[in-house]
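Field log, afternoon session.

UNIT: design team B
ACTIVITY: writing a sequence onto a fixed backbone
BACKBONE:
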């Protein structure tokens, strides 16, 4: 699958389950684990198909507010264009094929040069958009190029898949630059097509309604799929009375998109198993799967944090 393939992913996984059931046999338990786009596929699948999946682990996905995740990419491009006009042809809602074809050879070097030449503009870009960076100065470039990559390669595809242009910044007040008045005066404004809004509401926004267990995890410094998706989904689950079926993994305090350690993934997987298994799972005993004393100690610490959050 390429590009925005959430609905296709949900359907393809259902087909895979049916093929397995008819050709191999019906397993005792079927659950899903997915990261990034796979994270929202997992969350939506567990919500919508509880008769098929006994539970799921959704990692670093846009499970809280899909439309605002789309807006994040669009807003980043709007603010980038304000500080670096004309550096990337096209607009936040229309990407020329020439930009896509020559991204790595022409535009990445140009953006890298701009980052080095105009650090104050880049600092304002990050402050206005809230895009996270890490302690390593190299993460500034990683964040800027990473978010712009999604703007360049996902925008036209999203418009085609959603049946219309999905980005909205009409009415948004940008804050955090040295001259917010000028930024808001000059920033172009866009309104999502009604068809795209309907499509997102119908097929891409999670409901928080769970009748099967879902474990969700996210790094706090994710510059691509923003961490705020996790607490938003938590509030959805609480509002829908689904807290008995939902586990928010303790926030992973780290920069990067899906930059989980093996320890954290093992614990997340173990928590999902513990919620779906017919008999209790010894979460502490899972540390034996780790190869060394250091990782086993880290696992114990992560398990302690989880139990403190979920007494």
């Amino acid at each position: 699958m390429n590009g925005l393939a959430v609905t296709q992913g949900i359907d393809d996984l259902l087909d895979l389950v049916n093929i397995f059931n008819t050709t191999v046999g019906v397993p005792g338990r079927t659950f899903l684990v997915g990261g990034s786009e796979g994270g929202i596929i997992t969350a939506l699948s567990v919500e919508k198909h509880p008769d098929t999946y006994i539970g799921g682990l959704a990692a670093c996905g846009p499970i809280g507010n899909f439309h605002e995740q789309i807006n994040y990419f669009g807003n980043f491009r709007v603010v980038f264009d304000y500080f670096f006009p004309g550096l990337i042809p096209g607009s936040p809602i229309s990407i020329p094929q020439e930009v896509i074809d020559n991204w790595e050879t022409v535009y990445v070097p140009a953006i890298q040069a701009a980052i080095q030449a105009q650090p104050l503009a880049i600092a304002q870009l990050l402050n206005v958009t809230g895009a996270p960076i890490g302690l390593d100065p190299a993460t500034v470039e990683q964040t800027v190029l990473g978010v712009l990559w999604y703007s360049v390669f996902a925008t036209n595809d999203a418009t085609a898949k959603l049946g219309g242009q999905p980005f909205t910044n009409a009415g948004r007040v940008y804050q955090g630059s040295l001259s917010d008045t000028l930024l808001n005066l000059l920033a172009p404004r866009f309104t999502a097509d009604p068809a795209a809004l309907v499509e997102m509401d119908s097929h891409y926004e999670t409901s928080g309604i769970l009748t099967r267990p879902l474990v969700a995890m996210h790094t706090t410094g994710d510059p691509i799929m923003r961490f705020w998706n996790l607490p938003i989904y938590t509030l959805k689950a609480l509002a829908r009375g689904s807290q008995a079926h939902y586990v928010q993994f303790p926030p992973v305090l780290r920069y990067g998109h899906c930059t989980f350690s093996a320890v954290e993934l093992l614990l997340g997987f173990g928590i999902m198993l513990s919620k779906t298994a017919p008999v209790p799972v010894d979460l502490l005993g899972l540390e034996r799967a780790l190869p060394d004393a250091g990782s086993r100690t880290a696992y114990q610490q992560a398990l302690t944090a989880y139990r403190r959050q979920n007494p």
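LOG NOTE: The chain has a mean pLDDT of 96.
NEXT ACTIVITY: expression trials, pending approval
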